[in-house]
Amino acid sequence: MKERSERVAAVDLGGTSAKIGIVDRSGTILARDRVSIDARAGFEDIVGPVAMALAELLAGSGGGPPAGIGIGAPGFIDPDTGTIVGGSENIPAMQGRSPAAYLAGKLTAPAWADNDATCAAAAELAYGAGRGLRGFLLVTVGTGIGGGLVLGGKVWRGMRGFAGEIGHVSLDPCGPPCPCGSRGCLEQYASGPAIVRAWKACAGTRAAEAESPLEVARLARAGDPAALEAFAGAGRALGQALGGTVNLLDIEACLIGGGVADAGEVLLEPVRRSLRRYAYPLVAEGVRVIAAELGNDAGLLGAAALAWERLGA
Ligand SMILES: [Zn+2]
Element (H or E) spanning 35, and its range? Predict the structure, then answer.
């Protein structure tokens, strides 16, 4: 009998590039590469080069075809077909298409796709800060806000694969309009761009001193009141959304990941304070708000974790 391959291929599809990797069962990335993406290109012009680069990576790292292929991508993804059914406005050609079906055909291996934040939650559960936890929400704070949910020790995708979208929980019906069609969504108050907007609104003539959320974080760590206020506002909003979430789900932890999570305690501490204000005290007592561990590799490792999960490993 042919021995099954002990490696999977993983793809973390983003708006400007795709990270690709070969990952073993323990979460070790055996080989990796990055493929530039022109978000305005057609479907095959985007996924074709990804398939070619993966084939090269597989050939260069020895061994046969992968046991499976996992793909993380932005948007709402049908977990059965891997079709991106919505929310992929940044890469319009992906709408209604299945990169999983395409890569499965090109690389002759089974392929599955999940939302990128759901993948990140799967990665933290398998290899990161979520190991051993039965219930947590991972919030990815970056240009937007995404979320991935783990319940009963397993990734919870919801009925149609859409679960975990905490970025579009509305905190204020009179708040700023959100591209999703609602108003006052969490994303409008706590995303990277929202933190920079809040900083600029508070900083007056010093607005040009920070142009990114991590630059604002650097000033906050140095005690700058305007920068601290920008993160306090983001933390208040996150804590409000998470307070409702933990009341609903009685989970053990909220993991904060994504690029803005590198801000560290200047973000986490106001989130903890605010969560305690909005959650039922008995529920809040048992919830930890902690940093995710896998950083930039969360998407890639999550795509691999997805493939291992689907393979029944
Ligand atoms: Zn929204």
Answer: strand 29-36
